């Protein structure tokens, strides 16, 4: 834990007291989004202190030219930037001819932020004394509409406390923005058109290179004590990329002046005429009005929480943590559009770039499968199917593979590889396995095989072809090996025979072969169509199987464990407990050379394999491998603690499971890795959900049935969650005395609890 200023609360993220050192961290933590767009919790008014300004639009990106010291063949030509979008929230404010700027106020008191997760809004309030002696109280509420998802609304209220005040509001929209992480300090937006009237303005701009067109808009209303004062701006200033209005008002001491601003984006991904669409969006928002928009927001979030909430009784910090994670996941992706995906920072920052990592398939799909309609998870799989041709191009053009072998990108926006670190781009190839596993996991959970017969089989064939060609035969070992890789543990690069990579390669080939046979029998027309399309023969499948059946796995017979890779035991095996805490996190304190030579593990690697393929190993094998590798794991990846929490629960190490749960659920709230100001770890938040449902709840799917082995941390009085399993909603409630299972329909559901069949019905079933 590196920070502890967020107040414990069951439903809200709360900060009290103004501290310039916390501004950027809070900008991340209080971010808001609605699946279509999102923004950091930047101040609307001028702030001259350190800040990370950021607004983002789903699916909009820029191919920033790769910047490396030494170009190697196969490097991606660009690194996809999640673009800082034009700013629509800006409202400069003058009070008695002085700019409102919290960095320059004589005093700031009663400062409070609240991100209300239950209702989906962000609120900021404070009292301040300006240098001119004017004392004011300010309250600002902002939300991004879930229903009208191209629009957001701000209500900025000012109450003079010690004298009458002349208040000047200067709302603006500005397309002259830049990215924090631009490689070449380029501008990414080209202004096209400005349109303005007395109350609304529009700036249309397009991205260079990718030519996404976006109209940024605003509509302003000035209020006095809640009533529209119907004034026009005294001036309208505009350039090619910015429009700013000026509204002057006078308000008596103790009275409240406000500006209500509607803003947002319409994009060419969804509209042929973005300007007309923006005008229509403003009209729709005005017809509803602020109160109805807010009530619709509350109702929309209530519907989301009805299915996705996890309750924890007796541990407020644990409760706050899980709800923060669920809230951010739903702010980032709602499953409406198969062209979109779940970026690792969502709408909270720019680090990592790209829209999609293997995080989606390995961590996020289980959350979306269980808490939403199965079509949402199917959309995520379809996203990869639609990019299969690009994955084949990637393997062919960058690696020299042939015959339809597919290597999915480590990072992508449109199917092209756009990660600019060699060790990640060309060595962390295990991502192919996660994509295949997600197809298996989707069918296992939903029972919907149609995706495999219609689309998924082509993906599996391309991936199997890749593994067949990527493996090489070792005469010394008389087995197939996979050389020069990086596993999930990115603290070891260019190593040979990473256990997880080798294991999932074998599994992918076996699974693809099994599905080819199944589709041939049950869906012969699809089988004929696909095999003709990809020119697959029985002889080729036999060649695949030679690799899978003779894959090498490094082991230590002495320790009874699988080795993370060849030579792991040659390292200086000093456990983490003996590492000086002042050296942590090692990725910020050590040279990369020292990190690579150390035994320290960034995230689960061998244990990731045990997580995916739990039924392939005995509990005793898990115990030996867990106890060995956990002692060397520094958990400096956000994806690490959740897997350890789940496996600690399996092994009845409940204190450890609880500690890992807290770390994964409060990773950002408590800033464990000293980096939250760069944005939140959105995709790993799904791992927090898994830690409870799969860890403490012990949920698994076996033989088309839900299995549970419920456990509860001693710190909790009880917990509950819901699962949408094959269109039946099952509620699980666990306390120290009993576990109850109920379904929300008249149709019973047979489940297995601690190895025994139980019939869950609409009436409470107690185990």
Automatic annotation (TrEMBL):
It comes from Flavobacterium pectinovorum. Residues 699-758 form the Glycoside hydrolase family 65 C-terminal domain. Keywords: Hydrolase. Pfam families: Glyco_hydro_65C, Glyco_hydro_65m, Glyco_hydro_65N. Signal peptide: none annotated. Residues 323-690 form the Glycoside hydrolase family 65 central catalytic domain. The lineage of its organism: Bacteria, Pseudomonadati, Bacteroidota, Flavobacteriia, Flavobacteriales. InterPro entries: 6-hairpin_glycosidase_sf, 6hp_glycosidase-like_sf, Gal_mutarotase_sf_dom, GH65_N, Glyco_hydro_65_C, Glyco_hydro_65_M, Glyco_hydro_65_N, Malt_Pase/Glycosyl_Hdrlase. Gene3D superfamilies: 1.50.10.10, Glycoside hydrolase, family 65, N-terminal domain (2.70.98.40), Maltose phosphorylase, domain 3 (2.60.420.10). PANTHER family: GLYCOSYL HYDROLASE-RELATED, MALTOSE PHOSPHORYLASE. Residues 14-268 form the Glycoside hydrolase family 65 N-terminal domain. The active site is at residue 490. One of its GO terms (biological process) is carbohydrate metabolic process. Belongs to the glycosyl hydrolase 65 family. One of its GO terms (molecular function) is carbohydrate binding. The keyword rRNA processing does not apply. Substrate binds at residues 358-359, 602-603. This is Family 65 glycosyl hydrolase. It comes from the Bacteria.
């Amino acid at each position: 834990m590196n920070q502890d200023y967020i107040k414990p609360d069951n439903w809200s993220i709360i900060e009290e007291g103004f501290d310039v050192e916390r501004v950027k961290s809070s900008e991340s933590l209080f971010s808001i989004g609605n699946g279509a767009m999102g923004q950091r919790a930047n101040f609307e008014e001028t702030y001259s202190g350190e800040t990370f300004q950021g607004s983002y639009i789903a699916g909009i990106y820029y191919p920033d030219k790769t910047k490396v010291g030494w170009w190697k063949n196969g490097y991606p030509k660009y690194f996809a930037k999640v673009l800082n979008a034009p700013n629509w929230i800006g409202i400069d404010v003058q009070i008695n001819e002085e700019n409102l700027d919290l960095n320059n106020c004589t005093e700031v008191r009663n400062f409070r932020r609240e991100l209300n997760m239950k209702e989906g809004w962000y609120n900021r309030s404070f009292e301040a004394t300006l240098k001119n002696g004017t004392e004011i109280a300010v309250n600002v509420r902002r939300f991004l509409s879930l229903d009208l998802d191209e629009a957001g609304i701000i209500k900025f209220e000012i109450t003079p406390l010690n004298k009458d005040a002349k208040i000047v509001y200067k709302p603006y929209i500005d397309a002259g923005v830049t990215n924090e992480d631009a490689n070449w300090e380029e501008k990414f937006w080209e202004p096209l058109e400005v349109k303005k009237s007395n109350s609304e303005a529009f700036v249309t701009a397009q991205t260079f290179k990718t030519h996404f067109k976006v109209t940024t808009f605003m509509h302003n209303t000035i209020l006095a004590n809640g009533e529209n004062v119907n004034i026009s701006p005294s001036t309208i200033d505009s350039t090619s990329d910015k429009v700013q209005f000026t509204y002057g008002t006078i308000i008596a001491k103790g009275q409240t002046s406000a500006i209500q601003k509607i803003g947002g984006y319409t994009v060419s991904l969804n509209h042929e005429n973005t300007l007309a669409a923006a005008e229509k969006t403003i009209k729709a928002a005005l017809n509803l009005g602020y109160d109805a928009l807010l009530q619709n927001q509350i109702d929309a979030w209530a519907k989301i929480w009805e299915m996705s909430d996890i309750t924890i009784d007796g541990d407020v910090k644990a409760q706050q943590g899980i709800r923060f994670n669920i809230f951010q996941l739903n702010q980032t992706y709602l499953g409406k559009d198969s062209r979109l995906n779940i970026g690792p920072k969502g709408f909270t920052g720019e680090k990592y770039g790209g829209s999609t990592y293997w995080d989606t398939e390995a961590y996020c799909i289980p959350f979306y499968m269980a808490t939403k309609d199965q079509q949402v998870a199917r959309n995520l799989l379809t996203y990869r199917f639609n990019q299969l041709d690009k994955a084949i191009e990637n393997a062919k053009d960058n690696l020299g593979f042939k015959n339809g072998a597919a290597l999915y990108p480590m990072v992508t926006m449109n199917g092209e590889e756009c990660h600019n670190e060699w060790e990640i781009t060309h060595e962390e190839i295990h991502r192919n396995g996660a994509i295949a596993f997600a197809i298996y996991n989707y069918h296992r959970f939903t029972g919907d095989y149609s995706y495999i017969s219609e689309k998924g089989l082509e993906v599996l064939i391309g991936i199997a072809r890749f593994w067949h060609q990527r493996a090489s035969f070792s005469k010394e070992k008389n087995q197939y090996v996979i050389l020069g890789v990086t596993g999930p543990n990115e603290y070891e690069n260019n190593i040979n025979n990473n256990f997880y990579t080798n294991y999932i390669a074998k599994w992918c080939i076996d699974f693809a072969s099994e599905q080819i046979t199944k589709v041939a029998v049950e869906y012969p027309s699809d089988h004929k169509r696909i095999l003709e399309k990809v020119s697959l023969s029985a002889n080729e499948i036999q060649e695949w199987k030679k690799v899978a059946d003779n894959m090498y796995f490094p082991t230590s017979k002495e320790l009874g464990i699988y080795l993370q890779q060849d030579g792991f035991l040659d390292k200086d095996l000093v456990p983490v407990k003996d590492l000086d805490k002042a050296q942590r996190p090692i990725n910020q304190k050590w040279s990369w050379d020292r990190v690579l030579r150390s035994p320290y593990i960034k995230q689960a690697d061998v244990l990731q394999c045990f997580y995916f393929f739990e039924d392939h190993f005995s509990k005793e094998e898990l115990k030996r491998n867990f106890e060995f590798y956990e002692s060397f794991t520094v958990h400096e990846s956000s994806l690490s603690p959740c897997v350890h929490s789940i496996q600690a629960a399996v092994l009845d190490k409940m204190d450890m499971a609880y500690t890992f749960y807290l770390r994964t659920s409060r990773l950002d709230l408590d800033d464990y890795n000293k980096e939250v100001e760069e944005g939140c770890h959105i995709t790993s938040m799904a791992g927090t959900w898994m830690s409870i449902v799969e860890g403490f709840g012990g949920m698994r799917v076996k033989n088309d049935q839900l299995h549970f082995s419920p456990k509860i941390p001693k710190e909790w009085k009880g917990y509950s969650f819901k699962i949408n399993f094959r269109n039946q909603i099952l509620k699980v409630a666990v306390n120290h005395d009993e576990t109850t299972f109920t379904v929300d329909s008249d149709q019973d559901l047979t489940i297995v609890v601690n190895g025994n069949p139980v019939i869950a019905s609409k009436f409470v079933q107690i185990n």
